[in-house]
Design goal:
Structural class of chain A: alpha+beta
Helix content of chain B: 40-55%
Radius of gyration of chain B: 13 Å
Distance between the termini of chain B: 10 Å
Shape of chain B: globular
Distance between the termini of chain A: 25 Å
Order of helices and strands of chain A: HEEEEEHHHEEEEEH
Oligomer: heterodimer
Number of helices of chain B: 5
Order of helices and strands of chain B: EHEHEHEHEH
Largest sheet of chain B: 5 strands, parallel
Shape of chain A: globular
Radius of gyration of chain A: 16 Å
Protein backbone atom coordinates (compact mmCIF):
# COMPACT_ATOMS: atom_id res chain seq x y z
CA UNK A 1 0.00 0.00 0.00
CA UNK A 2 1.32 3.42 -0.88
CA UNK A 3 1.11 5.51 2.26
CA UNK A 4 2.36 9.03 2.92
CA UNK A 5 2.72 8.10 6.58
CA UNK A 6 4.06 4.94 8.17
CA UNK A 7 1.94 3.13 10.74
CA UNK A 8 4.46 4.23 13.39
CA UNK A 9 4.04 7.88 12.37
CA UNK A 10 0.25 7.54 12.41
CA UNK A 11 0.43 5.95 15.87
CA UNK A 12 2.67 8.76 17.14
CA UNK A 13 0.24 11.42 15.87
CA UNK A 14 -2.68 9.54 17.46
CA UNK A 15 -0.86 9.39 20.81
CA UNK A 16 0.15 13.07 20.86
CA UNK A 17 -3.23 14.42 19.83
CA UNK A 18 -5.35 12.11 22.00
CA UNK A 19 -3.24 12.99 25.03
CA UNK A 20 -3.50 16.70 24.18
CA UNK A 21 -7.31 16.61 23.92
CA UNK A 22 -7.75 14.58 27.11
CA UNK A 23 -5.31 16.77 29.03
CA UNK A 24 -6.66 20.17 27.90
CA UNK A 25 -10.39 19.46 27.74
CA UNK A 26 -10.84 16.74 30.36
CA UNK A 27 -7.84 16.91 32.68
CA UNK A 28 -7.66 13.12 32.38
CA UNK A 29 -4.25 11.44 32.26
CA UNK A 30 -3.86 8.63 29.72
CA UNK A 31 -1.46 5.72 29.38
CA UNK A 32 -0.95 4.61 25.80
CA UNK A 33 -0.24 0.97 24.92
CA UNK A 34 1.77 -0.10 21.86
CA UNK A 35 -0.02 0.48 18.56
CA UNK A 36 -1.37 -2.45 16.55
CA UNK A 37 -2.33 -2.82 12.91
CA UNK A 38 -5.84 -4.24 12.57
CA UNK A 39 -7.58 -5.82 9.61
CA UNK A 40 -10.36 -4.17 7.65
CA UNK A 41 -13.08 -5.83 9.70
CA UNK A 42 -12.65 -4.83 13.31
CA UNK A 43 -14.32 -7.02 15.91
CA UNK A 44 -16.42 -5.26 18.45
CA UNK A 45 -18.47 -5.99 21.51
CA UNK A 46 -20.54 -2.85 21.41
CA UNK A 47 -20.29 0.43 23.24
CA UNK A 48 -19.86 3.83 21.63
CA UNK A 49 -17.90 4.52 18.46
CA UNK A 50 -17.41 8.06 17.12
CA UNK A 51 -16.20 8.32 13.52
CA UNK A 52 -14.85 11.24 11.51
CA UNK A 53 -14.24 10.80 7.78
CA UNK A 54 -11.30 12.07 5.72
CA UNK A 55 -11.88 13.29 2.17
CA UNK A 56 -9.71 14.99 -0.43
CA UNK A 57 -6.37 13.69 -1.65
CA UNK A 58 -6.71 10.95 0.98
CA UNK A 59 -9.79 9.04 2.09
CA UNK A 60 -10.50 7.09 5.23
CA UNK A 61 -11.65 7.64 8.74
CA UNK A 62 -10.61 8.09 12.32
CA UNK A 63 -12.51 6.72 15.28
CA UNK A 64 -12.70 6.48 19.03
CA UNK A 65 -14.33 3.40 20.53
CA UNK A 66 -15.07 2.83 24.19
CA UNK A 67 -17.52 1.19 26.58
CA UNK A 68 -20.81 2.81 27.60
CA UNK A 69 -19.43 3.43 31.08
CA UNK A 70 -16.27 5.13 29.83
CA UNK A 71 -18.26 7.26 27.36
CA UNK A 72 -20.35 8.46 30.32
CA UNK A 73 -17.22 9.18 32.40
CA UNK A 74 -15.51 11.09 29.57
CA UNK A 75 -18.66 13.12 28.89
CA UNK A 76 -19.09 13.85 32.59
CA UNK A 77 -15.56 15.30 32.73
CA UNK A 78 -16.16 17.36 29.59
CA UNK A 79 -19.54 18.76 30.59
CA UNK A 80 -19.25 18.66 34.41
CA UNK A 81 -22.51 16.71 34.54
CA UNK A 82 -23.10 13.15 35.73
CA UNK A 83 -24.48 10.63 33.24
CA UNK A 84 -26.05 7.30 34.29
CA UNK A 85 -26.51 6.10 30.72
CA UNK A 86 -25.59 6.97 27.15
CA UNK A 87 -27.90 9.73 25.93
CA UNK A 88 -27.79 12.43 23.25
CA UNK A 89 -25.45 14.61 25.30
CA UNK A 90 -22.98 11.73 25.72
CA UNK A 91 -23.12 10.93 22.00
CA UNK A 92 -22.55 14.60 21.14
CA UNK A 93 -19.64 14.85 23.58
CA UNK A 94 -17.99 11.72 22.16
CA UNK A 95 -18.45 13.06 18.63
CA UNK A 96 -16.73 16.29 19.61
CA UNK A 97 -13.84 14.43 21.28
CA UNK A 98 -13.37 12.42 18.06
CA UNK A 99 -13.59 15.61 16.01
CA UNK A 100 -10.81 17.25 18.02
CA UNK A 101 -8.51 14.20 18.03
CA UNK A 102 -8.94 13.44 14.33
CA UNK A 103 -8.88 17.13 13.36
CA UNK A 104 -5.60 17.72 15.14
CA UNK A 105 -4.21 14.50 13.65
CA UNK A 106 -5.12 15.80 10.19
CA UNK A 107 -3.30 19.08 10.79
CA UNK A 108 -0.18 17.35 12.15
CA UNK A 109 -0.15 15.03 9.15
CA UNK A 110 -0.89 17.78 6.60
CA UNK A 111 2.73 17.99 5.38
CA UNK A 112 2.54 14.39 4.20
CA UNK A 113 -1.12 14.11 3.27
CA UNK A 114 -1.73 17.39 1.47
CA UNK A 115 -5.21 18.86 1.41
CA UNK A 116 -7.59 16.72 3.41
CA UNK A 117 -11.01 17.72 4.72
CA UNK A 118 -13.04 16.25 7.55
CA UNK A 119 -16.64 15.16 7.77
CA UNK A 120 -18.81 16.06 10.72
CA UNK A 121 -18.71 13.25 13.32
CA UNK A 122 -20.98 10.20 13.25
CA UNK A 123 -21.56 8.44 16.56
CA UNK A 124 -22.91 4.88 16.86
CA UNK A 125 -24.06 3.25 20.07
CA UNK A 126 -25.17 -0.34 20.48
CA UNK A 127 -24.21 -3.98 21.02
CA UNK A 128 -22.32 -6.47 18.89
CA UNK A 129 -21.68 -4.22 15.91
CA UNK A 130 -18.66 -4.44 13.64
CA UNK A 131 -16.87 -1.60 11.87
CA UNK A 132 -15.75 -2.55 8.38
CA UNK A 133 -13.22 -0.57 6.43
CA UNK A 134 -13.46 -0.03 2.70
CA UNK A 135 -11.24 -1.82 0.18
CA UNK A 136 -9.52 -3.95 2.78
CA UNK A 137 -7.35 -1.14 4.15
CA UNK A 138 -5.91 -1.65 7.60
CA UNK A 139 -6.38 0.46 10.73
CA UNK A 140 -3.59 1.79 12.90
CA UNK A 141 -5.02 1.40 16.40
CA UNK A 142 -3.69 2.79 19.68
CA UNK A 143 -5.25 1.57 22.94
CA UNK A 144 -5.28 3.93 25.92
CA UNK A 145 -5.88 3.26 29.61
CA UNK A 146 -8.13 5.89 31.14
CA UNK A 147 -9.83 5.92 34.53
CA UNK A 148 -9.38 2.16 34.90
CA UNK A 149 -10.81 1.31 31.49
CA UNK A 150 -9.46 1.02 27.96
CA UNK A 151 -10.50 2.85 24.82
CA UNK A 152 -9.07 2.75 21.33
CA UNK A 153 -8.29 5.43 18.76
CA UNK A 154 -7.90 4.21 15.18
CA UNK A 155 -7.01 5.77 11.84
CA UNK A 156 -7.29 4.33 8.34
CA UNK A 157 -6.06 6.23 5.30
CA UNK A 158 -5.71 5.49 1.60
CA UNK A 159 -4.91 7.77 -1.36
CA UNK A 160 -8.23 8.66 -2.97
CA UNK A 161 -6.99 7.87 -6.47
CA UNK A 162 -6.43 4.22 -5.44
CA UNK A 163 -10.06 4.01 -4.37
CA UNK A 164 -11.15 5.34 -7.74
CA UNK A 165 -9.07 2.70 -9.55
CA UNK A 166 -10.39 -0.23 -7.48
CA UNK A 167 -13.64 -2.00 -8.46
CA UNK A 168 -16.52 -1.89 -5.99
CA UNK A 169 -17.01 -4.71 -3.53
CA UNK A 170 -20.06 -6.71 -4.75
CA UNK A 171 -23.08 -7.14 -2.51
CA UNK A 172 -23.20 -10.37 -0.58
CA UNK B 1 -24.54 47.79 29.31
CA UNK B 2 -24.80 44.01 29.36
CA UNK B 3 -23.12 42.08 26.58
CA UNK B 4 -25.26 39.70 24.53
CA UNK B 5 -23.21 36.80 23.15
CA UNK B 6 -23.93 34.36 20.33
CA UNK B 7 -22.29 30.91 20.38
CA UNK B 8 -22.35 29.08 17.04
CA UNK B 9 -21.31 25.41 16.99
CA UNK B 10 -22.99 22.23 15.77
CA UNK B 11 -21.84 20.48 18.96
CA UNK B 12 -24.09 21.12 21.95
CA UNK B 13 -21.18 19.97 24.15
CA UNK B 14 -18.96 22.80 22.91
CA UNK B 15 -21.79 25.34 23.27
CA UNK B 16 -22.28 24.23 26.86
CA UNK B 17 -18.53 24.47 27.62
CA UNK B 18 -18.32 27.96 26.11
CA UNK B 19 -21.34 29.10 28.14
CA UNK B 20 -19.54 27.88 31.25
CA UNK B 21 -16.36 29.74 30.27
CA UNK B 22 -18.33 32.95 29.63
CA UNK B 23 -19.88 32.68 33.08
CA UNK B 24 -16.35 32.57 34.54
CA UNK B 25 -15.34 35.89 32.98
CA UNK B 26 -15.74 39.31 34.59
CA UNK B 27 -18.00 40.38 31.75
CA UNK B 28 -21.40 41.82 32.51
CA UNK B 29 -23.38 39.34 30.43
CA UNK B 30 -26.84 39.77 29.04
CA UNK B 31 -28.42 37.01 26.97
CA UNK B 32 -26.36 34.14 25.64
CA UNK B 33 -27.79 32.76 22.42
CA UNK B 34 -26.96 29.40 20.83
CA UNK B 35 -27.00 28.43 17.16
CA UNK B 36 -26.09 25.09 15.58
CA UNK B 37 -25.03 26.57 12.23
CA UNK B 38 -24.64 29.83 10.30
CA UNK B 39 -28.26 29.88 9.15
CA UNK B 40 -29.58 29.84 12.71
CA UNK B 41 -26.92 32.38 13.69
CA UNK B 42 -28.10 34.88 11.06
CA UNK B 43 -31.69 34.59 12.32
CA UNK B 44 -30.55 35.32 15.90
CA UNK B 45 -28.41 38.26 14.77
CA UNK B 46 -31.39 39.73 12.88
CA UNK B 47 -33.61 39.51 15.96
CA UNK B 48 -31.16 40.62 18.66
CA UNK B 49 -28.40 43.10 19.41
CA UNK B 50 -25.45 40.75 19.77
CA UNK B 51 -22.13 42.20 20.96
CA UNK B 52 -19.84 39.18 20.53
CA UNK B 53 -19.91 36.03 18.38
CA UNK B 54 -17.98 32.83 19.13
CA UNK B 55 -18.18 30.56 16.08
CA UNK B 56 -16.98 27.17 14.87
CA UNK B 57 -15.90 26.83 11.22
CA UNK B 58 -16.91 23.32 10.13
CA UNK B 59 -20.69 23.19 10.43
CA UNK B 60 -23.52 21.93 8.22
CA UNK B 61 -25.82 24.22 6.17
CA UNK B 62 -23.73 27.38 6.52
CA UNK B 63 -20.17 27.10 7.84
CA UNK B 64 -18.29 29.64 9.94
CA UNK B 65 -16.49 31.28 7.02
CA UNK B 66 -19.78 31.77 5.15
CA UNK B 67 -21.25 33.22 8.33
CA UNK B 68 -18.31 35.63 8.61
CA UNK B 69 -18.83 36.74 5.02
CA UNK B 70 -22.53 37.34 5.63
CA UNK B 71 -21.94 39.27 8.85
CA UNK B 72 -19.26 41.49 7.35
CA UNK B 73 -21.46 42.26 4.34
CA UNK B 74 -24.05 43.90 6.61
CA UNK B 75 -22.94 47.38 7.78
CA UNK B 76 -25.03 47.15 10.95
CA UNK B 77 -23.11 44.02 12.03
CA UNK B 78 -19.67 45.08 10.84
CA UNK B 79 -18.45 46.08 14.29
CA UNK B 80 -19.41 42.85 16.06
CA UNK B 81 -16.24 41.06 17.25
CA UNK B 82 -16.14 37.47 15.99
CA UNK B 83 -13.84 34.81 17.42
CA UNK B 84 -13.45 31.53 15.56
CA UNK B 85 -13.15 28.52 17.89
CA UNK B 86 -12.47 25.50 15.75
CA UNK B 87 -10.61 22.26 15.17
CA UNK B 88 -9.67 23.57 11.75
CA UNK B 89 -5.95 24.36 11.84
CA UNK B 90 -5.33 24.57 8.10
CA UNK B 91 -3.27 27.75 7.70
CA UNK B 92 -5.17 28.77 4.57
CA UNK B 93 -8.46 28.59 6.49
CA UNK B 94 -7.00 30.62 9.38
CA UNK B 95 -5.78 33.29 6.94
CA UNK B 96 -9.15 33.29 5.18
CA UNK B 97 -10.96 33.78 8.48
CA UNK B 98 -8.72 36.71 9.41
CA UNK B 99 -9.11 38.27 5.97
CA UNK B 100 -12.88 37.90 6.21
CA UNK B 101 -12.84 39.83 9.46
CA UNK B 102 -12.42 37.41 12.37
CA UNK B 103 -10.83 39.20 15.33
CA UNK B 104 -9.55 36.04 16.96
CA UNK B 105 -8.87 32.39 16.31
CA UNK B 106 -8.66 29.63 18.93
CA UNK B 107 -7.86 26.02 18.12
CA UNK B 108 -9.73 23.14 19.74
CA UNK B 109 -8.78 21.66 22.15
CA UNK B 110 -8.63 24.79 24.28
CA UNK B 111 -8.37 25.78 27.91
CA UNK B 112 -10.83 28.14 29.57
CA UNK B 113 -7.97 30.61 30.07
CA UNK B 114 -7.22 30.72 26.33
CA UNK B 115 -10.84 31.56 25.56
CA UNK B 116 -11.04 34.20 28.30
CA UNK B 117 -7.83 35.88 27.13
CA UNK B 118 -8.99 35.95 23.52
CA UNK B 119 -12.38 37.40 24.45
CA UNK B 120 -10.72 40.02 26.61
CA UNK B 121 -8.26 41.12 23.90
CA UNK B 122 -10.96 41.17 21.19
CA UNK B 123 -13.33 43.26 23.28
CA UNK B 124 -10.52 45.65 24.20
CA UNK B 125 -9.64 46.07 20.53
CA UNK B 126 -13.29 46.69 19.76
CA UNK B 127 -13.33 49.46 22.36
CA UNK B 128 -15.56 47.70 24.81
CA UNK B 129 -14.36 47.87 28.41
CA UNK B 130 -14.92 44.79 30.56
Amino acid sequence: MELGLTHDEIAAFIRVNTEKVFSMMLDLPLVASPAVVEGALANGEGGVIALVGFAGEWSGSGSIRCSDALACSISAKLLLTDFDCVNDEVLDAMGEIANMVVGNFKDDAADKLGLVGLSTPTVIYGNNFQARNFNGQTWTAVPFDCAGETFEVKISLVPSRILHETPCIPHR
Amino acid sequence: MALDVLIVDDSSAIRKILMRVLAQTDLKLGDIFEAADGVDAIKILEANKVGLVLSDINMPNMDGLQLLTSVRSRPEWNGIPIIMITTEGNQAKVMEAVQLGAQGYVRKPFTAEQIKEKISSCLSSAGRAE
